[in-house]
Amino acid sequence: MESRIKLKPNYQRKLIETAKNNLTWEELGKKLNISGTYLKRDLRYERILLTENNYNALCKLSRENYDNYILKKLESNWGQSKGGKNSIHKPKGTKLLTTERSKELAEIIGIMLGDGNVWSRKGFYYTRIAGHSIDDKDYLLNFVNPLFKKTVSIDMGTYYSKTSKEMFLTKGSKDLVYTLEHYGFKNGNKKKNNLGIPKWVFDSDDYIKACIRGLIDTDGSVSPITGRNYTYIWFRSSIPNLRKTFSKAMEILDIRIAKWSGGENAQTFIGSKSAILNYYKEIGFNNSKHNGRFFAPVV
């Protein structure tokens, strides 16, 4: 996994601006496989450290070596390993089920942020993803479970509620709980933990798109508006940090969303024709339920 490069103050900005030269921000972003907006607003102003790969690419583009200005190299999970509230307990004998970040892993994180939960109690480790036993059955069985098999070599069990139209993918595995925590999905109550999209997801537009798709496929909705011949895409969350990072992700992807409204359990939506088409083209759905309800606007 990639480490992060911490340069002396203001040298990250200098490196980025030197490498940019006459390029636009989007052109430079494409060379690094990240968003131009993320590059301009976050990396340029040193809000987030450069990955080692992006640091090396920027040095190559600028034709300058900034190694003398490196203060330290930080491991990929440095933000989690500093201790305190962000520390992760690693049970004895636990292993990571994947050591590679990927689009698939980002989508899993989005799915978990939407309809997933993990917790550990007295040596018992449990992961669960909820869905509608009819509407989400195809998605959970034929997409989500194979996604876990492919990405973390986990085959989820299936449970159907006897009292409601709910179904669950479940797994008792301390390795899976630890792996999800390692990549930013803390166990316990999502709202109390104020979970959001992890920082590493913002390293790549492909990661962001996959994570957002996982969120919308599980906790979003696609529904028509009275008087309109096309569907809006909705997302609701009671978690402040998830709303904040969702807005940031959509801004980076240049997909305009409405202002959050509705109090504690606030919602937003994609309502303009151009933004809806952009979402469908760039992100789309893996949940057949949403595909079946989607009507593209006529532009």
* Overall mean confidence score, pLDDT: 90
Q: Can you tell me the CATH architecture of the largest domain?
A: Roll
- As residue ranges, the low-confidence spans are 78-86
Tell me the name of the CATH class of the largest domain. Alpha Beta
- End-to-end gap: 43 Å
- What is the count of β-strands? 10
Would you mind describing this structure in some detail?
The protein has 299 residues and is α+β, with helices and mostly antiparallel strands. It has three domains: 4-76, lambda repressor-like DNA-binding domains (434 Repressor (Amino-terminal Domain)); 85-195, Roll (Endonuclease I-creI), CATH 3.10.28.10; 200-293, Homing endonucleases (Endonuclease I-creI, Roll). Helices cover 41% and strands 18% of the residues. It has twelve helices and ten strands. Strands 4-5-7-6 form a four-stranded antiparallel beta sheet. The chain has a three-stranded antiparallel beta sheet with strand order 2-1-3. A three-stranded antiparallel beta sheet has the order 8-9-10. The model is unreliable at 78-86 (pLDDT under 50).
Helix-strand blueprint:
Blueprint: E1 4-7, H1 11-20, H2 25-32, H3 36-43, E2 50-51, H4 52-62, E3 70-74, H5 78-81, H6 103-115, E4 116-121, E5 124-132, H7 137-152, E6 157-160, E7 166-171, H8 174-182, H9 205-219, E8 220-224, E9 231-237, H10 240-252, E10 266-270, H11 273-282, H12 288-293
Antiparallel strand pairs: 1-2, 1-3, 4-5, 5-7, 6-7, 8-9, 9-10
Helix pairs in contact: 1-4, 2-3, 6-7, 6-9, 9-10
